[in-house]
Amino acid sequence: GINAEYGGYSLIAYSSEYVLLFVGRGITGLGLSLTCLSLSPYISEISPTKHRGKFASIMQLQVQLGILVINFLAVLDISFRWSASITSAIAVLNLFFVAVAPETPRWLMSKAKVREAEQVLDLLMEEDPD
């Protein structure tokens, strides 16, 4: 998903024809959809029950704030190439965070990686769980 976002934004930023803008926008939309589709279950699996709603809401808030920022850049009459370049840089930053994020304990257990699942649970668990 994130690779598609980066590729789509890059295509938008460096396009020389309208058709490439539309193709880049389509790729970007698909990539963002795939990212959001996989991020919601990930957040649900790693979040403590009492914080799950907050964390899922924060993800949606970040998406909406991103849309607001891009619209604000459009109001400032900043070139679409610059705004696409900025969002492409954000996609690269997201790619880094995805690379360092731990696998979910549920997935690790399904692959019989019990020790790794325990380590991730220790990382994610609160010290005072009430």
Entry summary:
The protein is an all-alpha fold. The chain is built from 6 helices and no strands.
Residues in helices, as a percent range:
over 70%
In terms of per-residue confidence, which ranges show pLDDT below 50 for 5 or more consecutive residues? none
Structural class by sheet pairing and helices = mainly alpha
Q: How many helices does DSSP assign?
A: 6
Number of strands: 0
Order of helices and strands: HHHHHH
Say what oligomer this is.
single chain
Strand content: under 5%
What is the residue-mean pLDDT, rounded to a whole number? Answer: 84
What is the CA-based Rg, rounded?
18 Å
Describe the largest sheet: none
CA-CA gap between termini: 36 Å
Shape: elongated
Q: What do you see in this structure?
A:
α1 runs antiparallel to α2 and α2 (18-46) runs antiparallel to α3. The chain is elongated. It is built from six helices and no strands. By secondary structure, it is mostly helical. Helices cover 79% and strands 0% of the residues. The chain has helices spanning 2-13, 18-46, 52-75, 80-100, 105-110, 114-124.
What key phrases describe this protein's structure?
mainly alpha, about 0% strand, elongated, about 130 residues, 6 helices
Task: Outline the secondary-structure elements.
Layout lengths: L1 H12 L4 H29 L5 H24 L4 H21 L4 H6 L3 H11 L6
